């Protein structure tokens, strides 16, 4: 025989919810028991209220906020339910886009770490550093460019923070890897106290119309080498790479840029820094 009244424990077990959830719904005036004993304060629910609890469970699984669910419990008009579901779908789509972006960014960081581990392994096995000619693809970047200290001993962390703030301000889906363009000769970064025309950038997926810090970059060829260790030790690699590219008949004018694959933003071990060095070929500007 069906019961006419159910205790809070019985209702919780019947609908597979917790007693604390039912108490919370009661306190928040979302869903109240049909009867409450004035003597003991015990809550009792009717058979008709089972469908209410099941509806709350279903709408919660869809992601509707409890306040909206409470309104729907008092007015179950189908048109009202349709509007609530459509509004929630917009929020879910926004959350899904954000989750996809987080997934892409985390995957990018993982790839950088794997690349670094491969480079570190190559160094530790005493394999020779290889030079390559690569195509630098054209892409959109968000950047800051102004005269600044560009020494190999200097930290660009404040410039990185500046870029992240720009990306947040304009809601740009930026990559996590920071790069630096040395518009002066690459040797300036190895001279103590030297300042130069320094541009720091990250790649972005699209360019908003109102962002003055975005531009196109790439679309040229470059000689590339990978350096493992602190930046102060890169000068011989730069000069060897320039001689190698020149020996192949390319013109190198000292312009350069670096991808900080692994830097102090990820590890505090300077010996594990991994930097890709690029010398653009046969071009005067980048």
N-to-C SSE series?
EHHEEHHHEEHEEEEHEE
Total number of beta strands: 11
Mean pLDDT score, rounded? 88
Which range best describes the helical content: under 10%, 10-25%, 25-40%, 40-55%, 55-70% or over 70%? 25-40%
**Backbone CA Rg:** 30 Å
> What is the CA–CA distance across the termini?
82 Å
CATH superfamily of the largest domain: Regulatory factor, effector binding domain
SS-based class: alpha+beta
Strand order in space, largest sheet: 4-9-11-10-6-7-5-8
CATH C-level category of the largest domain = Alpha Beta
What is the number of helical segments per DSSP (H or I, 4+ residues)? 7
CATH fold name of the largest domain, please?
Multidrug-efflux Transporter 1 Regulator Bmrr, Chain A
Count of structural domains: 2
Oligomer state of the chains in this structure: single chain
Major pleated sheet: 8 strands, antiparallel
Report the principal-axis shape: elongated
Q: Could you write a compact summary of the structure shown?
A:
This protein has 286 residues and is of the alpha+beta class. Helices cover 39% and strands 23% of the residues. A hairpin with a 6-residue loop joins strand 2 (35-36) and strand 3 (43-46).
Describe what you observe in this structure:
This protein has 286 residues and is an alpha+beta fold. The chain is built from seven helices and eleven strands. α3 packs antiparallel against α4 (66-74).
Task: Please supply descriptive tags for the structure shown above.
286 residues, alpha+beta, Multidrug-efflux Transporter Regulator, Chain: A, Domain 2, Multidrug-efflux Transporter 1 Regulator Bmrr, Chain A, eight-stranded antiparallel beta sheet, three-stranded antiparallel beta sheet, 7 helices, 11 strands, elongated
């Amino acid at each position: 025989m069906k019961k006419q009244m159910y205790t809070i424990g019985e209702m919780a077990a019947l609908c597979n919810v917790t007693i604390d959830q039912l108490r919370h719904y009661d306190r928040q005036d979302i869903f109240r028991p049909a009867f409450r004993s004035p003597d003991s304060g015990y809550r009792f629910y009717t058979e008709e209220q089972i469908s209410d609890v099941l509806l709350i469970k279903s709408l919660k699984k869809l992601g509707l906020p409890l306040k909206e669910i409470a309104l729907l419990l008092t007015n179950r008009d189908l048109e009202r339910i349709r509007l609530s579901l459509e509004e929630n779908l917009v929020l879910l789509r926004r959350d899904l886009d954000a989750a996809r972006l987080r997934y892409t960014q985390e995957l990018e960081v993982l790839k950088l770490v794997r690349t670094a581990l491969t480079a570190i392994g190559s160094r530790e096995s005493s394999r020779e550093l290889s030079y390559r000619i690569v195509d630098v693809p054209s892409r959109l970047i968000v950047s800051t460019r102004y005269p600044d200290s560009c020494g190999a001993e200097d930290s660009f962390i404040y410039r990185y923070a500046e870029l992240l703030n720009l990306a947040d301000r304009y809601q740009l889906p930026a990559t996590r890897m920071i790069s630096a363009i040395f518009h002066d000769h690459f040797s300036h970064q190895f001279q103590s106290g030297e300042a130069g025309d320094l541009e720091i950038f990250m790649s972005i997926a699209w360019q908003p119309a109102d962002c003055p810090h975005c531009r196109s970059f790439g679309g040229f060829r470059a000689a590339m080498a990978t350096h493992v260790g602190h930046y102060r030790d890169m000068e011989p690699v730069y000069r060897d790479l320039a001689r190698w590219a020149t020996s192949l008949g390319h013109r190198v004018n000292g312009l350069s840029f670096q991808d900080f694959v692994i830097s102090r933003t990820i590890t505090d071990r300077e010996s594990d820094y991994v930097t890709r060095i690029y010398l653009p070929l046969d071009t005067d500007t980048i």
